[in-house]
Design a protein that fits this description.
- One of its GO terms (molecular function) is DNA binding.
- The chain contains six helices and three strands, in the order αβααββααα.
- The protein is an alpha+beta fold.
- The chain has a three-stranded antiparallel beta sheet with strand order 1-3-2.
- 19% of the residues are buried.
Length: 100
């Protein structure tokens, strides 16, 4: 459900605030637009995130955690905490989540 390199990070970044595609892409250096789109679609399909479209000009789309996704919040935060214990620099939960 949240396996792979990117899904846990995407969900981690959605814990406190909904994000637009471009915001997520800038938080995930190295991810391609195609891969981010694929991961977002899979998370949405699994009911962990929702995609909200705002019909305005320009069109606005935001992603956020669903209630099901929020159930994993504590686990994601614990993964970050455990990962940072093993890093030399505690400056990046992104690296920490990737370690776990």
């Amino acid at each position: 459900m949240i396996g792979g390199k990117w899904k846990t990070l995407i969900m981690y970044y959605l814990i406190n605030k909904r994000k637009r595609f471009s915001e997520l892409k800038s938080l995930l250096p190295g991810i391609t637009s195609k891969m981010l789109t694929k991961q977002l679609r899979e998370l949405e399909r699994d009911g962990l995130i929702k995609r909200e479209i705002y019909h305005q000009v320009p069109l606005k789309v935001e992603y956020s955690l669903t209630a099901k996704g929020m159930e994993l919040e504590e686990i994601l935060l614990q993964m970050c905490e455990v990962g940072t214990r093993y890093l030399d620099h505690e400056d990046s939960c992104q690296k920490a989540v990737q370690l776990v």
